[in-house]
Amino acid sequence: MAKMKGLAMLGFDKIGWIEKDIPEIGPLDALCRPLAISPCTSDVHTVWEHAIGDRHDLILGHEASAEVVEVGPLVKDFKPGDKVIIPAITPDWQAVESQMGYSQHSNGMLNGWKFSNIKDGVFAEYFHVNEADGNLAHLPKGINIQDAVMLSDMVPTGFHGANMAEVEYGDTVVVVGIGPVGLMAVAGSVLRGAGRVFGVGSRQNCQDAAKYYGATDTINYKDGDIVEQIKEAMNGKPVDKVILAGGELDTFDQAVRLVRPGGIVANINYLGSGDFIKIPRVEWGLGMGHIRIIGGLMPGGRKNMEYLARVIENGRLDVSPLLTHRFEKLDDLEEALLLMKDKPRDLIKPVVTIG
Ligand code: NDP
Ligand code: ZN
Predict the structure, then answer these.
(1) Tens digits of residue pLDDT in 136-193
(2) Rounded distance between C-alpha atoms, residue 34 and residue 162, angstroms
(3) Which of 270, 342, 345 to mutate to test the pocket of ligand 1 (most atoms within 8 A of CB)?
(4) Which of 20, 38, 163, 190 is deepest in the core (most CB within 10 A)?
């Protein structure tokens, strides 16, 4: 059987290049080769925080644009040579959970997250995509292969945060964490009509990017309690919504302290460690404050990719400022992933072009 190489989690805290068989595809599936790829903070949680348990020789990565190499006999809308957007989440569309509106959890909690979780990911010469007609999207001509990678995960996750927070015209929104995910939550909130938007993060480049994407205020959590800083800026008034795209377990406590009765705390942060989240009793209205707390994995699949691509294609969103570090070949992936782990101050997101 023909072989390929991929960058894998070898075990806890260990990554390395391995050789594997090129995946076989079923009748509904596709085999793809990446055109551009990006590592994710989630890969870092998985390898170095042991967030989903041990994995041996699991190829990492879930963000890519790609070319279709082969399709199964029942695939209708894609053929070899097509350029496509790959969603990080590729649900089983026939599952009951998908019919309930939670395709992310098709056939089990988080089971729509397949790449780099329950099967080999995209950090390889080839990768397998289940249910190609439901999970691939054609790459529009107006979007380049590097920007397209931001459609895999950063845009849908950030926008999902804004959707879960049900951001409305004029809302005051706090986005805690302004790495690439939080920046897209800022952009999504602005597109949904937010009035005032606070972006919380310490790095200057991310604060500048938050302003670029429409944040009206930036807060450095290293300068003191963010609740106090934001309350001061708000003259003691609560905010409408908080989106968590960074921080720790205690950040939920801060978020609940910030929102008004009836407000929403929407988490998109991958909680890589710790056991329980604490909710402050009094600020949660003694349990009766109508403050909703929700957390969700991004929705994947074709429709979501096609619709979000339209936002970029028509000039409503420019993702290129996210791509601060650019690499030119597959072999550079390891360096790109380590950058994501170490987060130098000038980094937002690395992208590796394979072409
Ligand atoms: P980054 O690490 O790039 O960004 C994290 C942000 O949180 C930074 O702005 C950082 O500030 C800030 N931060 C760190 N600690 C605190 C704190 N104590 N209080 C407030 N802010 C803090 O991550 P990404 O943007 O790449 O990803 C964000 C999260 O989203 C990750 O956990 C990732 O795994 C998750 N994710 C979730 C998905 C989903 O479907 N729900 C999908 C993809 C990713 P600074 O660095 O400036 O100091
Ligand atoms: Zn991710």
Answers:
(1) 999 999 999 999 999 999 999 999 999 999 999 999 999 999 999 999 999 999 999 9
(2) 29
(3) 270
(4) 38
Is there an atom of ligand 1 within 6 Å of 336 CB?
Answer: no
Instruction: Report, as an integer, the average pLDDT of 213-226.
Output: 98
Locate tokens 């994710």: which residue? 40
Amino acid identity, position 196: R
Q: How close is the Cα of 181 to the center of ligand 1, in Å?
A: 7
Closest CA to ligand 1's atom 1:
179
Q: What is the number of the ligand closest to the CA of 181?
A: 1
Atom of ligand 1 nearest to the CA of 88: 42
Per-residue pLDDT for 355 more than 90?
no
CB atoms within 10 A of CB 138: 16
Amino acid letter, residue 328: E
Q: Is the beta carbon of 218 within 6 A of some atom in ligand 1? A: no
Ligand 1: residue whose CA is nearest its atom 22: 247
Distance 83 CA to ligand 1 centre (A): 30
| 4-48 pLDDT, tens digit each | 999 999 999 999 999 999 999 999 999 999 999 999 999 999 999
Report, as an integer, the average pLDDT of 232-255.
97
Nearest ligand to the C-alpha of residue 295? 1
Dihedral angle, C-alpha 268, 272, 277, 280, nearest 10 °: -60
Q: 19 - beta bridge partners?
A: 5
d(CA 112, CA 102): 9
DSSP E strand stretches across the chain = 3-11, 14-21, 30-37, 58-59, 64-71, 83-86, 127-129, 137-138, 172-176, 196-200, 217-219, 239-244, 259-267, 292-295, 323-327, 349-353
Walk me through the domains of the chain, giving residue ranges and CATH numbers. Answer: 3-153+298-353 (3.90.180.10), 156-295 (3.40.50.720)
* pLDDT tens digits along 303-344: 999 999 999 999 999 999 999 999 999 999 999 999 999 999
pLDDT over 90 (residue 272): no
